[in-house]
């Protein structure tokens, strides 16, 4: 897990952030940004650069290497700070809170503005990043830069998808996006995987989810990572989240992903609630969704008789 940098924001000065953003800009061209180029990239004097480098190194926001030339690169923590600062400056975020979840590919925190929100830092590419570090493989130029690129692309992708789907599909309301981070409404409820539904709730919840997936498909997306871990259930209904890998319905594998999503979801319900979930075939549901005829599991079952 990447360290929570929120508390650091208060102790940093704007010049520290200029320096970080200078390193970020230099990383567009190479993995390690030479110290000599930092005055240009950051708009600071060379003396100021030296002073700011020390401060940022001490806080482990950047890393230094001295092989071949003296160079600097951002740590994930430095990148987090740049995103966090952008959100704070445009008043998206007023207060930082506790962790809401740590995924394989993200760190999610509660934040606040006029109401509780969730801040998701994307970490796609993080594992690669760590491996590169461990091997001290400084020659693998592009791999190192790519963690930043991969994580930013994932955030942009997820934001674009939930902006398109909201409010027709029950997804968290999108609020803002910067670099590898998105801010969205904080969901109420608990993960489906941690819920024990009453018998009479089981089929209605499954039907709700299938209708949300149908609506997403009609608007143009397949989730492609559907599971009991990416659904929240509350009194108010269901919310489907975690959309960075969603594919448009005209993608050549879209229907295959849809079938897999349905197999995951139906499989989970059948395993957990074998007595109450009617047997229904993912293929049949998928066909009904893609040809626009899906109405409910009950009608599908009736049709099959
Ligand atoms: N908008 C949100 N409100 C509340 N909790 C959230 C929100 N988004 C994510 N979380 C929590 O963070 C966890 C990880 O988020 P998720 O989007 O699934 O990322 P990952 O790709 O890492 O699985 C979720 O399982 C959930 O518990
Ligand atoms: Mg998830």
What's the arrangement of secondary structure elements?
Elements (H helix, E strand, L loop, with lengths): L5 H6 L2 H13 L6 E2 L3 H5 L3 H13 L3 E4 L5 E4 L1 H14 L5 E8 L3 E7 L3 E7 L3 H10 L5 H25 L8 E5 L2 E5 L4 E2 L7 H21 L1 E2 L8 E4 L2 E4 L6 E2 L5 H19 L9 H9 L6 H8 L1
Antiparallel strand pairs: 1-3, 2-3, 4-5, 5-6, 6-8, 7-8, 9-11, 10-13, 11-12
The protein binds adenosine-5'-diphosphate and magnesium ion.
In a few lines, what is going on in this structure?
Helix content is 47%, strand content 18%.
**Counted beta strands:** 13
Shape: elongated
The structural domain count equals 2
Q: How much helix is in the residues? A: 40-55%
Structural class: alpha+beta
* Main sheet strand line-up: 4-5-6-8-7
Radius of gyration: 23 Å
Amino- and carboxy-terminal Cα gap: 51 Å
Q: What does this 3D model show about the protein?
A:
With 305 residues, the chain is α+β, with helices and mostly antiparallel strands. The protein folds into two domains: 6-185, Phosphorylase Kinase, domain 1 (2-Layer Sandwich); 190-304, Transferase(Phosphotransferase) domain 1 (Transferase(Phosphotransferase), domain 1, Orthogonal Bundle), CATH 1.10.510.10. 47% of the residues lie in helices and 18% in strands. It contains eleven helices and 13 strands. The protein has helices at residues 6-11, 14-26, 38-42, 46-58, 76-89, 126-135, 141-165, 199-219, 254-272, 282-290, 297-304, and strands at 33-34, 62-65, 71-74, 95-102, 106-112, 116-122, 174-178, 181-185, 190-191, 221-222, 231-234, 237-240, 247-248. The strands form four sheets. It has a five-stranded antiparallel β-sheet with strand order 4-5-6-8-7. The protein has a three-stranded antiparallel β-sheet with strand order 1-3-2. The chain has a three-stranded antiparallel β-sheet with strand order 9-11-12, with helices on one face. Strand 11 and strand 12 (237-240) form a beta hairpin. Helix 2 (14-26) crosses helix 4. The longest helix has 25 residues, at 141-165. The chain is elongated, with a radius of gyration of 23 Å. It starts with 5 loop residues before the first helix and ends with a helix. The model is unreliable at 132-140 (pLDDT under 50). Bound molecules: adenosine-5'-diphosphate and magnesium ion (MG).
